[in-house]
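so my prof wants the structure for this chain in the tokens format not the other one, which i didnt know existed until like an hour ago. anyway here's the sequence
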Amino acid sequence: MTELWLIGIGTGNPAHLTLEGRQALREAACVLLPRKGPGKDDLAHLRLAMLSESGSAAEVIPFEMPVRDEALPYAERVERWHDAIAGRWQAALEGAPAGPVALLVWGDPGLYDSTLRIAERLPGPVRLRVVPGITALQALTAAHAIPFNTINGAVTVTTGRRLRDGGWPEGAESVVVMLDGACSFETLPPEGLRIWWGAFLGMPEQLLDHGPLSEAGPRIKARRAEARARHGWIMDTYLLRR
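here's what i got, hopefully its the right format
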């Protein structure tokens, strides 16, 4: 592999794939397709649907995603997981056709996604190309028809883990929380906070809720649990604002 193209595909809606992304898929020689185990086949099917709609004739090469070792400390767990993923890429591409290799990345490859860091583990030289995609931040604020920021206001983008461990970021007015599997907004004093939440953004299954955190928080927690049980997985994010 001498060329690796990371193509942002948005949050699940095939229409989120840009014209540049569609052209890249038509020009790629092969596409790596991650499989994440039982109950998550929807993720692979969505990628395959985008390939089909783009008119791509690239060879699809599936690989099984490794599982993180939850017994390890967080940083070590992630490092080893990334090493394992890079190894799976290399093994899957043995005997692959010559030419650019594409990976379809949820959202945008540059925002809270580790594909670029995993690519650094590949034996070089590998030329990287990044095709930007619509982020969950954009899809969330568009779905709720709200601005991302207030007038002259800053926005902090963080994770559920950091919100739980550190609380409300100092000096923040608006906070977008990603990668939160534990409804970490429950750890915050709700007074004066509003929340805008979205799951399966851009998909037919899209769920939205908003309101004062004290009122919307319990509803969101219940809806999230029900949706995860029904689909076997969930992607969601939310914006909090004072």
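also thought this was worth mentioning. The mean pLDDT is 93.
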